């Protein structure tokens, strides 16, 4: 770490090369998670592992940058790169928050059926979702519901639930070879995806493949 | 997706520059760049190349494929082919725009390159419109989009997925109504 | 006709993209309509039950649908105002300009504060509790510095590197993009037209 103020990728690892490959692959994985989240109608399983790791990388880097001279060329280059990475992370996490706000009730009820290992939301996101719902309920009750007659006062969870349209069409590129996807709406027509090939198809046909990483949305 | 986001993605592609300064390898999170030796070409991501160029720290070298003659050949091929031909880059349009914008003084033949790329784009877009039209009329449920580049796909979003979503709604809506009536008519 | 006032509420949302003064009078009228529909239905339901007067059933059903529609209109009105408020949180930050604030009723101000709190808590939790601000870096970065014009007196602004600059009306500055973004959204700075 003490090498004449030279900015290193990480502060803790001696094996620069290995760590670099890891950080780089984490970044690529976040970028893929970002685009998937942007294009998928439903909320996808969270990738806080990637986000936490990358935010840590950013912090290390910002720490190291403090030791650089103001005129150092690296300062500008690192800053630019960090801006790019922060943009991806911001946009990714915001896309998730937007879905949470839009489909709050639906997401919370789905989440309630999942065990802690298969949760789609992070602890903080779950907390945010619950608070968001409580706040809406409070708003509705204070302004309107409590002034309505009789049983119209209820906050009807069923009628207020908004669900994502899983049948919406999406663009995708296959990462792996996948055989025998049944085309929704067809008389059991099947298609095979070659690695690298691009398609448009209903999201519901590939939702599991997006989550497993066999395809990516584009 | 906003076109500026597609452009953002394209800025990850590499391009060769000739720096006018020397500097050791720089370890970025996305990988290392350099070492930079004044006068010697080195590959860097486009976002870096553009910024160095703006600060007059480098010259940008044409991408191999940014050559007017070969682009014009590709254009003829695109015209003749029924299918989409493979483009030299998934971001050919954005890369060309970015590099020609910032480094038209480094790139010889910039005008011819610009025209050729614009022509290729136009041919492909008109092909895309025709094939979408045919696809929708055939009530297709799935289409293969090989060789379509990022910006081209983005240009038919959200129209194409929306059109398909609406068609599906009309179809299933019709079915739901039918069953509804048959249910109440008894 | 039943439900007409409720519809008026909704069309108000459609006509204006800004947050107008909360239409308490109209909401009250819709609530009154709901009450009278409800009372009529209670009376009719009793008649149906006691006298077995089935001829009243269609009117009860009609009023019931009108009641549901009115409820839906009111909630949609509140919900969509909330959505606009939410957008403002991301655009302008946690303090609303007075011209918006005066158009809100108490419950909406409360909601806004709760939303602020939830969002702040969420952002603080990111990166293993080191915190990460999601309201900056909202557009793809292009260049590190942008040329901006100050269109409103702002006062001193401290940059990340400790440098302090004075933002006075009609002055031009070259500033880090991340610093400018929120100030541009707040209308204090604008991109210098080239």
Automatic annotation (TrEMBL), chain A:
Coiled coil: none annotated. It holds the Pfam family Sld5. Keywords: Chromosome, DNA replication, Nucleus. Residues 1-11 have a biased composition (Polar residues). Residues 1-22 are annotated as: Disordered. One of its GO terms (biological process) is double-strand break repair via break-induced replication. Residues 12-21 have a biased composition (Acidic residues). It is found in: Chromosome; Nucleus. Its main location: nucleus. Transmembrane segments: none annotated. Residues 70-143 form the GINS subunit domain. GO terms for cellular component: GINS complex. The keyword Signal does not apply. Residues 164-218 form the DNA replication complex GINS protein SLD5 C-terminal domain. It comes from the Eukaryota. SUPFAM superfamilies: GINS helical bundle-like (SSF158573), PriA/YqbF domain (SSF160059). Belongs to the GINS4/SLD5 family. This is DNA replication complex GINS protein SLD5. It comes from Melipona bicolor.
TrEMBL record, chain B:
Residues 2-61 form the DNA replication complex GINS protein PSF2 N-terminal domain. GO terms for cellular component: CMG complex; GINS complex. SUPFAM superfamilies: GINS helical bundle-like, PriA/YqbF domain. It is found in: Nucleus. It holds the Pfam family Sld5. InterPro entries: GINS_A, GINS_bundle-like_dom_sf, GINS_Psf2, PSF2_N. Keywords: DNA replication, Nucleus. GO terms for biological process: DNA replication; double-strand break repair via break-induced replication. Residues 65-168 form the GINS subunit domain. Belongs to the GINS2/PSF2 family. Component of the GINS complex. This is DNA replication complex GINS protein PSF2. The gene is PSF2.
From TrEMBL, chain C:
InterPro entries: GINS_A, GINS_bundle-like_dom_sf, GINS_Psf1, PSF1_C. Its main location: nucleus. It comes from the Eukaryota. It is found in: Nucleus. Residues 142-191 form the DNA replication complex GINS protein PSF1 C-terminal domain. Keywords: DNA replication, Nucleus. One of its GO terms (biological process) is DNA strand elongation involved in mitotic DNA replication. Residues 56-126 form the GINS subunit domain. CDD domains: GINS_A_psf1 (cd11710), GINS_B_Psf1 (cd21696). Component of the GINS complex. Required for correct functioning of the GINS complex, a complex that plays an essential role in the initiation of DNA replication, and progression of DNA replication forks. GINS complex seems to bind preferentially to single-stranded DNA. PANTHER family: DNA REPLICATION COMPLEX GINS PROTEIN PSF1, PARTNER OF SLD5. Belongs to the GINS1/PSF1 family. This is DNA replication complex GINS protein PSF1. It comes from Melipona bicolor.
């Amino acid at each position: 770490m003490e090498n004449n103020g030279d900015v290193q990728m990480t502060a803790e690892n001696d094996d620069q090369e290995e760590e670099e490959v890891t950080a780089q692959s984490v970044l690529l994985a976040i970028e893929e998670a970002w685009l998937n989240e942007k294009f998928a109608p439903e909320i996808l399983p969270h990738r806080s592992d990637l986000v936490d790791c990358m935010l840590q990388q950013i912090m290390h880097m910002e720490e190291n940058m403090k030791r650089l001279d103001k005129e150092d060329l690296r300062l500008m280059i690192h800053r630019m790169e960090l801006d790019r990475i922060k943009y991806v992370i911001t946009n990714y996490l915001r896309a998730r928050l937007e879905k949470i706000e839009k489909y709050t009730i639906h997401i919370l009820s789905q989440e309630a059926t999942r065990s802690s290992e298969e949760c789609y939301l992070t602890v903080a996101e779950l907390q945010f979702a619950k608070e968001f719902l409580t706040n809406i309920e409070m708003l509705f009750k204070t302004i309107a519901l409590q002034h309505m007659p009789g049983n119209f006062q209820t906050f009807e969870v069923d009628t207020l639930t908004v669900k994502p349209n899983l049948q919406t069409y999406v663009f995708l590129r296959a990462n792996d070879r996948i055989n025998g996807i049944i085309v929704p709406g067809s008389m059991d027509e099947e298609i095979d995806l070659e690695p690298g090939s691009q398609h448009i198809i209903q999201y519901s046909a590939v939702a599991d493949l997006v989550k497993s990483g066999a395809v990516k949305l584009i | 997706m906003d076109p500026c986001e597609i452009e953002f993605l394209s800025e990850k592609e590499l391009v060769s520059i000739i720096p006018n300064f020397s500097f050791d390898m720089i370890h970025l999170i996305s990988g290392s760049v350099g070492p930079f030796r004044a006068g010697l070409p080195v590959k860097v991501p486009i976002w870096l190349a553009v910024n160095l160029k703006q600060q007059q720290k480098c010259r940008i070298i044409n991408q191999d494929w940014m050559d007017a003659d070969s682009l014009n050949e590709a254009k003829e091929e695109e015209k003749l082919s029924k299918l989409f031909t493979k483009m030299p880059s998934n971001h050919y349009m954005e890369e060309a725009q970015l590099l020609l914008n910032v480094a038209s003084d480094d790139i010889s033949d910039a005008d011819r390159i610009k025209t050729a790329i614009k022509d290729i784009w136009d041919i492909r877009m008109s092909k895309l419109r025709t094939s979408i039209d045919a696809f929708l009329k055939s009530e297709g449920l799935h289409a293969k989009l090989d060789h379509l580049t990022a910006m081209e796909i983005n240009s038919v979003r959200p129209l194409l997925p929306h059109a398909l979503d609406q068609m599906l709604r009309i179809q299933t809506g019709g079915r739901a109504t039918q069953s509804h009536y048959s249910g109440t008519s008894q | 006709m039943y439900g007409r006032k409720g519809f008026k509420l909704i069309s108000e949302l459609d006509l204006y993209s800004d947050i107008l003064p909360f239409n308490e009078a109209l909401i009250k009228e819709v609530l009154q309509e709901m009450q009278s529909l409800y009372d009529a239905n209670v009376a009719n339901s009793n008649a149906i039950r006691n006298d077995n007067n089935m001829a009243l059933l269609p009117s009860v059903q009609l009023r019931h649908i009108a009641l549901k529609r009115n409820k839906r209109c009111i909630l949609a009105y509140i919900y969509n105002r909330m959505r606009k408020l939410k957008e403002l949180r991301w655009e302008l930050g946690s303090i609303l300009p007075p011209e918006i604030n005066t158009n809100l009723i108490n419950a909406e101000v409360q909601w806004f504060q709760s939303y602020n709190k939830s969002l702040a808590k969420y952002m603080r939790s990111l990166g293993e509790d080191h915190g990460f601000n999601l309201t900056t870096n909202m557009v793809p970065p292009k260049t590190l510095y942008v040329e901006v014009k100050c269109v409103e007196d702002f006062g001193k602004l401290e940059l990340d590197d400790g440098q302090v600059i004075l933002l006075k009306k009609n002055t031009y500055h070259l500033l880090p993009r991340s610093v400018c973004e929120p100030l541009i959204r707040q209308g204090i700075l604008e991109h210098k037209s080239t």
